[in-house]
Design a protein that fits this description.
With 426 residues, the protein is α/β, with parallel strands linked by helices. It contains 19 helices and 13 strands.
């Protein structure tokens, strides 16, 4: 036996004993605390004996599913052990929606009890302060922030903590434009953190489905009960109290319903949230029931329908034009090279600032400042969809690295990180 093979064998034996020790420890924890999570981790320890990459998704809200599910499914298909650690207040809703096949679902609280650490941890909201990423600071784990939208109004802000990217090692970027805007400003504030990060050119996995032919416009409209021969406008605002839904939502829907178009209302998951969360009550709808409000409106305006389901993709495919304010879904829609209208929301920009794409990116569409202008521009863009096409084409290549294969890029990058991670035993 040469020195190299002896070293490999010794490492394998060490890993085996370490895994067995972890299993015994977790079994005792399970017996003492009757912890389902500990039993899950025991099974994962056995999987770990076969050196499967272990990827953890740190999820704050069920609304993030459309952003992470494509990558989760790809990783499972490529023989990774995948765990989603969901906020304790959200884990029940996540499970009710259905856990992806082959995935372990636990609460963040359960994660704190276990010995085995992931080779890669993926988070989505660094500005809120990821408790898991911080706890993994001294673990041999590659900690990744995955950009989960094509607007950066809060992505690199300091809402929950100062220097929010300090707890991470890598950043999965959607497009080259995001090296400008609020991330560039971040680099001036925290140059050491910025220089330490590794950047990956990914795209936005949730948009891949827009280009795979999964959804048919006529079928989507038929399922909503809308006229398949009419042009269709999608109203997709962001959720905050300073945005267009909360300031002018009913007036906007009234105006759109008066036009010879279908109107699909696709709301942010926070606008439909009924839980008494401070962030929704204080910064969002304040207790309003938007589903009931829109259902009441639709009783007398048959061309208005509230989109069901969380995924925006089928409704984007079915629409000829999108109306938004500062929501990232507007830029996802631009990838289809179709017209976008932005209803101006100055109070929201006062809150988030004007250095990000959420503000100056609006040049790819039309900005309107009142209801009259909105109706006028909707009719113009329906009649002349190539109006502003040059501006849209310019933005398509800057806001997203790719259209259609971002999930593959993200998956390969995760495997690369897992293979070259700080781990000594996977």
């Amino acid at each position: 036996m040469n020195v190299g093979s002896f070293g490999t064998a010794r490492a394998a034996i060490f890993s085996l004993f370490r895994a067995i020790a972890n299993i015994i420890k977790l079994l005792l924890h399970s017996l003492i605390h009757r912890s389902l999570g500990a039993l899950i981790w025991i099974m994962m320890e056995f999987r770990g004996l076969f050196s499967k990459p272990f990827v953890l998704f740190d999820i704050d809200a069920t609304g993030l599913r459309e952003h992470c599910d494509p990558l989760i499914e790809w990783l499972v298909c490529n023989d990774c052990t995948v765990v989603v650690a969901v906020a304790d207040t959200e884990v029940s809703d996540y499970r009710k929606a259905g856990v992806p096949k082959g995935v372990w679902c636990i609460s963040k609280g359960q994660f704190n009890s276990f010995a085995r650490k992931p080779s890669v941890c993926i988070s989505f909201h660094p500005e809120n302060g990821s408790s898991i990423a911080k706890k993994l600071a001294h673990a041999p784990t590659q900690r990744v922030v995955m950009q989960h939208g094509l607007s950066d109004k809060a992505a690199f802000g300091e809402i929950g903590k100062a220097n929010p990217l300090a707890d991470f090692d890598a950043l999965f970027l959607a497009g080259p434009i995001f090296l400008e805007g609020s991330l560039k400003a971040y680099s001036y504030r925290y140059p050491e953190t910025y220089e330490r990060l590794t950047f990956f050119e990914i795209g936005l996995p949730k948009t891949d489905v827009l280009f795979h032919g999964k959804y048919d416009r006529r079928i989507v409209l038929r399922e909503l009960g809308l006229d398949q021969e009419k042009p269709t406008v999608c109203y997709a605002p962001t959720w905050e109290k300073w945005a267009s839904l909360e300031k002018y939502g009913i007036a906007i829907l009234d105006a759109l319903s008066e036009l010879p178009v279908n109107v699909i209302v696709k709301l942010h998951h926070a606008s439909l949230r009924h839980a008494n969360d401070d962030w929704v009550l204080n910064d969002g709808h304040g207790g309003k029931d938007w589903k009931q409000l829109i259902d009441d409106l639709a009783k007398t305006r048959k061309n208005i329908k509230l989109a069901f389901g969380q995924d925006a993709a089928p409704y984007l495919v079915a629409s000829d034009l999108l109306v938004s304010d500062a929501s990232g879904v507007a830029y996802e829609y631009v990838l289809l090279d179709r017209p976008v209208i932005f209803f101006d929301v100055p109070e929201l920009f006062d809150h988030y600032g004007t250095e990000g794409i959420h503000y100056w990116g609006r040049e790819c569409g039309d900005i309107v400042y009142n209801i009259g202008e909105l109706k006028q521009q909707v009719l113009l863009n329906i009649e002349c969809p190539d109006y502003k096409r040059q501006e849209r084409r310019k933005w398509i290549d800057t806001i997203c690295y790719t259209r259609g294969d971002a999930t593959i890029r993200a998956g390969m990058s995760v495997l690369k990180l897992a293979a070259s991670s700080k781990r000594t035993d996977v």
